[in-house]
Specification:
242 residues; Rossmann fold; disordered N terminus
């Protein structure tokens, strides 16, 4: 008879109940868009055993998720990826961006670490929405880069707000993080919302002929830590260089 697979540490039923009760009675700052934790469930995946958290932002009704590996409550230096939704990349496997590759690589790294969190934020198209992102794609088909395409449509190059991410990490009682990112602006915003980041962990994806121009634009116009900057881990050095 085959025995059931052994699971590693995870949030216990008592911890889950405490987190849900705390979130239910939490009073949000009226000036911020916070989140409410509504459920935590097991999530066996192709990468390993995780738990998935359902979170709702009362201010805009958006539903976010946190994918958890291990018991991350009250831990320091937790490996974290803050990932924004990308339907075309994450689901359809679009080669125009590196989103799906970064998502899958992050889950793989967290599984290997044995502990970590992936935040999946509903901020499609850098928070301009799916239809607007497709409009931006159409402009890119005409030769505009991803920054100019957004500007032509009347948006900022990046409309994302990481206050929600910071609130989720506080809700889960994560004390400090090692952030999987190439984006110094993400570091800056998370720190401005009170997140302690002890290390930047590079998340470099090999470019292809389809996304090479896109990645070069992120490097040259958005300051992403690619090329000669790709191996910098030190947060203070990143701040000096950015």
């Amino acid at each position: 008879m085959t025995s059931a697979p052994q699971e590693g540490p995870k949030l216990s039923e008592d911890q889950i109940k405490a987190l849900l009760d705390e979130s239910k009675h939490h009073q949000c700052d009226p000036y911020e868009c916070c989140v409410q934790l509504v459920a935590i469930a097991d999530l066996p995946s192709r990468f390993g055993e995780f738990q998935v958290c359902g979170l709702v932002s009362p201010c805009d009704g958006k539903e976010h998720t946190a994918i958890i590996k291990g018991d991350i409550m009250d831990k320091e230096d937790v490996l974290v990826r803050v990932h924004s939704e990308c339907l075309t990349g994450d689901v359809m496997g679009s080669k125009r961006c590196d989103c799906r590759d970064q998502l899958l690589e992050s889950l793989k790294r967290i599984q290997e670490e044995g502990e970590g969190v992936l935040l999946y934020l509903r901020q499609e198209g850098r928070n301009i929405g799916l239809s607007e992102k497709i409009k931006a794609y159409a402009l890119q088909d005409k030769g505009y880069d991803t920054v100019d395409a957004n500007l032509i449509l009347g948006w900022q190059p990046d409309e994302r707000d990481y206050g929600v991410a910071a609130h989720i990490l506080r809700t889960l009682h994560v004390k400090s993080i090692r952030l999987l990112t190439n984006n110094p602006e993400k570091i800056k915003q998370l720190e401005s919302h009170g997140v302690e980041i002890t290390e930047r962990v590079p998340l470099i994806i090999e470019p292809t002929k389809y996304n090479e121009f896109y990645l070069e634009t992120k490097k040259e116009r958005a300051g992403h830590l690619l090329g000669e900057m790709s191996n910098i881990h030190d947060i203070e050095k990143i701040k000096e260089e950015s």
